[in-house]
Structures are given as C-alpha cells and as structure tokens.
Amino acid sequence: GRVGKTSSIGRLEGQTMTLDEMADRQKRQLESLDKLQSSLDAMKRRAGGSAGGTLVGIVSGIFEKAITAAFPSLSAGLEKEKWLKINPTTDAKFGDYQCNSAMMIHKFLKDSGDTSCKAPRDVSVKILECLGQTEVFTKTEIAGPGFINAHLDPQWVAKQFAKILKDGPSAPVADPQNIVVDFSSPNIAKEMHVGHLRSTIIGESICRVLEFCGHKVSRINHVGDWGTQFGMLINHLRTAYPDFNETPPNISDLTGFYKEAKKRFDEDEAFKKAAQLSVVTLQSGDEFSLKCWKTLCDVSRIQFKMVYDRLECAGLVEQGESFYNSRIPPIVKELTDMGLIEASDGAQIIHCGRQIPLMAVKSDGGFGYDSTDLAAVKYRIKDMASNRVIYVTDAGQSEHFEMIFIAAKKAGWCSEETRLDHVPFGLVLGDDKKKFKTRSGEVTKLVDLLDEAVLRVRAVLQDRMNTEGSTTQMTAEDLEHAARCIGYGCVKYADLRQHRIGDYQFSYDKMLDLKGNTAIYLMYSYARISSISNKAGVKKGDLATLLPSVAHPKEYALCMHILKFPEIVERVADWLLPHLICEFLYDAAEKFNEFYRECHVVGDAQQNQRLVICEGTAAVMKKGMFLLGITPLNKI
Fold it and tell me: Contact, 136 vs 588, CB < 8 A?
C-alpha cells in the first residue's frame, strides 16, 4: 500500500508530523505547484506542440507552414517551440487567435546577420504573404509591434461543431502508447479510508482521459500485502481462532481485527516475539501461514470491491508488494554489478543526489518499500513494455519517487522515450482544517463517507418530491439511482475540481450546493440541456445534417468553447491535472446559460440550428463528466 508511506526513513500511519516536517512538506508542495504551473504556462504558449485535431493545433499548423515558407532557415537554426507561438486572444474584438512569433523570429534573423526584416512587423508581413488562402480564416491583421490577429471563419467553426453530432466528441490526435497507472493502493487487512479517496478518484480519472486519447492503459493496484505487520495478524488469527482450518472466522470488520492484533502486539511481549517469528515462517513459504495470509487478502478484497463498485472504478489489476518478492534479489545484484549500490552501516544504499539515499537492502538484510519500488519500476518498463509509468500518491512521497526515477535512469532501464511521472496530491481536511476524521477521532471509512453522501442526496430529492407543486417525481428505483449518481459524483467532483497539489476541505454542504461549482450544478445543467430537444419535439437524427447558428455572439462563444474540449483533454493527458476538465465543464455550463438567456430556442425561427448547439454541448459535457467518473442523468 502507498498511503502513509514517505521515503526511506519511513513513517507509521497516524504518526504526528513535527512543525519542521510540516513546513518542509508545505515547501515541497509549493515547489511542485510552481513546477506544474510553469510547465502548464509553457504548454499554453507552446501551441506548436499541440496535436492535430484541436483548434489551436489547426491554427498552429497553418502558421507553421507559412513561417517555414517565409523563413526556410528558421527550423534548422531554432527549436520550433521558440518561434511558433500561437495563443487564444484575450478579447474577441481582436479575433480568435494571435500569432506572437514575429519578435523571436526577428531576433533570430538579426543574430544570424540577416537584415531583410528591419522590424518585427516586417516579419509579420512576410508571414502573411506566405499564408495564402485558407477556409479557416476570414481575416488576418497585424497589430502593435508585430502580432498577427486571426479571425476564424464562422462557417468553418459551424462545420467543425456539427461534426460533434455526427461523430461524437473528438479526442486529440496522439500516438498510442502503453501506459501503466499505479493508484489507489490500499493495505491488506485494513479497510479503505478517506486517505485513499484522492488517489483512487484522481487515478481513475487520469486512466479514463488516457484511454479516451487512444492509449492502452494498465490500472495497477500496488496493495500492501506483505511486510512485518502480517506476522502480527497471522499470529492473532492463529491464536484467537485455533480451529481456523475447520471453521474459518468471518472477519468482516477488518479495522476491529487489526486493532485487536495491534493491541496484543503492543501489550504482550510473548505475542510480539511469536509475531516476529511468524513473519519468517510466512516468508519461508509455511503452508499454514500462507493460508492465513490468503484469507486476510481475500477478506480485504471484498471490502475494497465495495468501494470500487461505488466509485465505478473497474479493471484494477492487483500487483501488490508480494508480487515483487522474487524479483528484488536479482535487481539488487544487477545494481551492485553496475556499481550503483554501496554499503553503509550494514545497509546497501543508492545515492540519488538527495539528502536521504534509497535503501536497496536494509541493515537487517531485509527488503523494504524502496526495494519493492525499484523492482516495480523495472518490471513496468521492461516486462510490461510501458512507454510511460504514472504513480498517483500523496505529496509526501514526492522525494521517494524522484529517487526511484533517478535510479531507474542510472540503471539504464529507461529509453529516451520512457516517461516516469509522479502525480502528487494534498490532504483531505475536515471542518477544523485538520486531517478528516470522525467525531470520535477515528479515520473515516471510505464506504461510510460515500454512503453518507448518497443518504444526503436522497433526502434532498425526497424533499423536492414531497413539496407541493413539485415537478420532480420518480419511482423508488429511479430515486435510488439518482441519489447514487449524484452522491458519488459530488464527492468525486469536490475532489477533482481542486488543483491536486493543495489540501482541500471536505464539506457535504458545499459539494451539494446547487449554485456553486459543484457536480450537482453541472448535472442539473446537463439534464436541462438534454430536455430541450424533447420539449421541441425534434428527434436528434433530424439535426444530423444541420449546421449550428453562430451569428449571435453568445452562440459563437459557446461553440468556440465546446470546440476547445480536445485541447483541454490533451493538456490533462500531458500534465495529469483533472481540475482543468472541471473548469472547462463549469465554464461550458455558464456559457450555455448565457446563450439560453439571450437566444430563444424552442419555437424560434432558428430553433433547429440552436438545437444543434444544445445537443453538441450536451454530448461534450457528458463525455467530460465521464472522464471525471461522473454519471450524468437525463432527468433530475
């Protein structure tokens, strides 16, 4: 399991952080945030890196062709990302996109001794001369010191939008890769708690985004199914249930079972010594110990499935710590033969340029968290032939994974194309802005937290149905389905809408707010949009050959926003920031409401052309919510 782990020094779950450690953790979070933000800003500027099929990719392709025709020596002398700079305009009166390449190209020419362009505006003139005729632009104009403002042709925009009804929401074009995503990773013999919430929700969303982009994704559950704690648990099972073989106990309360074992371990010295021996017998393959271990694993999986079913998280393949046991010794030998491992106080360590080294072998000769992750990263790169490996864990493990990645590169396991990513996230906080816990101070079980959300949504829907004159009427079955979709959706969205690096405060009241940036607001907006065609009595098939109306500014603004969906997906697939989809969906709902207020739909002369906008918006919103793991409802 990955919750509660830090780095080589380790930390037990629940152990309090010192003020210095908290300050250091916050500093690392801010550094990670700065790194991500600067990378994101660079990507926004570097439009030339966008895949085909996105609006900015199409516009970039047109300008790239014109620029290389105007200045043939440029591509050989300067990296494309430095001279191809396409951004959306900040004001619609300046068009839709702006080419900001002239200044950098002028500097390059000047430094190369080329004096053909005396100023950046001269560069822009030459670019436009090579632009030629295109159906994409209606107008291009030079502004200021050399910016080129490009106005998209509304008819071209309408044609692009109409494709959504015919082909569905499009994904960015990408070369298919084999990608491993390591997420969730609970511990055997412990129920999943709120600490596993973020890894599971963020990890599943990332998997859905990558699959939508055409990649083959392996969901890996690195469960904590090995280690010294199993000696304690097996010995408790052996002594508390001596007839274990004939009548295996029903260990449905994993938390209670673990606490019983831990209490005996802490208070009974004889039990403690026997538990330590049980670790040895388990690791040596003792039949009874393995049977006890398997029972604990099987019971735990039942508990995990209850959470995964609620979160609609399917396809997780369990490759726990025990999976790598036989793979660790050969890797230690391989790294030793390479000269990467050195002895230190009885341990075998790998220096990775950090204050604390990786512990390949502990001083007692055993293998720990570092050893397992070294084996795991090699297995994923080599045996699973992955182009990219992604680890979704809390921010406290950032340094650990930095060192694992450095070691993998030093060992030569990575090719130039191999990408290793750590996806760090902050804590879930309670009303007191401390770690989220129950009123009795216990860590909240994830099943209980999810069920409470459903309970609250069910009560809200029931109240609405019981209100005099209410149009909300559902069967008991529909009510239960709606309560689950909204309840689980609200928990997911409340998590995903935050920038994952920061901590966030968990609040049922906030996540169930109809007016805020919440899942329930998006779901109501989607249901409203979906109902408009029914009110008009128009079948979706009748709209398939129509273009949307884009004459009104609100029509055009909504269509342009919806067409940027592939760009957002591309960015999330690259930088692994699901909150960008949340921002996109919220803006889509807001822009749709503005459109709906100013552009009458049902009964208007432009009814069917505007229904195309409604249906296209609904299709993209549905896909966006799916990528977040949220199931929208056509009627609430």
Answer: no
Three-state DSSP string of 425-480: ECCEECCCCCECECCCCCECEHHHHHHHHHHHHHHHHHHHHHCCCCCCCCCHHHHH
The Cα–Cα gap between 620 and 139 comes to: 29
User: Of all helices (H) and strands (E), which one includes residue 128?
Assistant: helix 120-131
Measure the CA–CA gap between 286 and 303, rounded to whole angstroms: 26
For 463, 465, 466, 473, 499, the CA distances from 470, given in Å and listed in that order, are 10, 6, 7, 8, 37
Convert the pLDDT of each residue in 550-604 to its tens digit.
999 999 999 999 999 999 999 999 999 999 999 999 999 999 999 999 999 999 9
- The residues that bridge with 143 in the sheet, in sequence order, are 147
**Do 13 and 478 form a contact (C-beta atoms < 8 A)?**
no
Distance, CA of 394 to CA of 407 (rounded, Å): 21
Element (H, E) at 554: helix 553-563
Q: Can you say whether the dihedral through the CA atoms of 249, 254, 256, 260 is positive or negative?
A: positive
Beta bridge partners of 87: 98
DSSP one-letter code for 187: B
Rounded Cα distance between 222 and 318, Å, is 6
| C-alpha to C-alpha distance for 374 and 468, rounded to whole angstroms | 63
- Tell me the per-residue pLDDT of 328-382, one tens digit each, with 9 for 90 and over: 999 999 999 999 999 999 999 999 999 999 999 999 888 989 999 999 999 999 9
Three-state DSSP state, 237: helix
DSSP β-ladder status, 428-429 and 504-505 = parallel
Exposure of 435 in the CB half-sphere (CA atoms within 13 A): 16
Distance separating alpha carbons of residues 418 and 439, to the nearest angstrom? 46
Q: Convert the pLDDT of each residue in 75-90 to its tens digit.
A: 888 899 999 999 999 9
The model carries a pTM of: 0.91
Give how far the C-alpha of residue 615 lies from the chain's centroid of Cα atoms, to the nearest Å.
27
If you write DSSP's letter for every residue of 150-177 in order, what string do you get? EEEPHHHHHHHHHHHHHH-SPPPP----
Strand order in the sheet with 178-182: 317-318, 216-221, 178-182, 388-394, 419-425
Q: Measuring CA to CA, which residue among 194, 199, 96, 197 is closest to residue 141?
A: 96
Give the Cα separation of 243 and 252 in Å (integer): 18
pLDDT value at residue 50: 45
Find where tokens 């390479």 sit: 338
Please state, in angstroms and as integers, the Cα–Cα distance from residue 586 to each residue in 55, 432, 450, following that order: 20, 28, 23
pLDDT value of position 195: 84
Integer Cα distance of 502 and 30 in angstroms: 8
Residue with tokens 């864990």: 393
Residue showing tokens 């025990």:
322
Cβ-contact 357, 347 below 8 angstroms: no
